[in-house]
Amino acid sequence: MSKSVSTDDSILVVYKHYQRALAQWPKDILRPDVSFQNAMQRRIDRRTTPSTGHPEASVIANHALTTVPNPVRFDEKAEMEQVNVLYSFLENRYTKKYPLSENLMKPQSNPTYYENLIKELQEAPTRSWFARQVNKWKGFLRMT
C-alpha cells in the first residue's frame, strides 16, 4: 500500500512541475491555434492518468480488430528529466552555454537576413488581410 501512495505522490509532484513549466511557456503569436501547451497537457494527462482498460484487451473499431497497447509504466526519474528539459528551454540554458558568434548571425552574403527575419516575424501577427495579400503578390512577382 505504501508503494501505491509513494507512486501517487511522485506522479503529483511531476504533474505540478509540468504545470509550472507550461504556465511559463510563451504563447505562439504566429500560430495561436496550435498550442504547445495543449499538446504537452494531453501527453502529461496520458502519462499520469492510470489506464482503466485491460492492457491486453482487443477492440473492434471501424470493422478492424486492434489491440490496446500496454500502458507505459510511470518512471519518475525519466519524467523529471523531461521536466528539466522544459525548464532548460525556458531559461535559455543552451543559448547561454553555446552563444552564437557574430559571424554566424551576420553572414557575408546577406548581413541583415536575421534582423529582417525577426522584424518580419514580429510584424506578421498584426498585419491586415490586405497587407498580407500585398506581401504575397510581392513575393510572387519577385520569384517570376
Describe the overall structure:
With about 140 residues, this protein is mainly alpha-helical. It has helices at about 1-25, 35-50, 75-90, 95, 100-105, 115-125, 130-144; strands at about 60, 65. Strands 1-2 form a two-stranded antiparallel sheet. A hairpin with a 2-residue loop joins strand 1 and strand 2 (about 65).
State the main characteristics.
single chain; 144 residues; mainly alpha; two-stranded antiparallel ribbon; 60% helix; 6% strand; extended
Approximate shape: extended
- Report the total helices: 7
Mean pLDDT: 81
Number of strands: 2
How are the strands ordered across the major sheet?
A: 1-2
Contiguous low-pLDDT stretches (5 residues minimum) are none
Helical percentage: 55-70%
Q: Based on the structure, what is the oligomeric state of the protein chains?
A: single chain
Q: Which range does the strand content fall in?
A: 5-15%
The SSE string, one letter per element, is HHEEHHHHH
User: Class by helix and strand content?
Assistant: mainly alpha
The largest pleated sheet is described as: 2 strands, antiparallel
Whole-Å distance between the termini? Answer: 71 Å
Output the radius of gyration: 23 Å
Short structural summary:
By secondary structure, the protein is mainly alpha-helical. It contains 7 helices and 2 strands, in the order H-H-E-E-H-H-H-H-H. A two-stranded antiparallel sheet has the order 1-2.
Map the helices and strands:
Elements: H1 2-24, H2 36-48, E1 58-61, E2 64-67, H3 76-90, H4 93-97, H5 102-105, H6 113-123, H7 129-143
Antiparallel strand pairs: 1-2
Helix pairs in contact: 1-2, 1-3
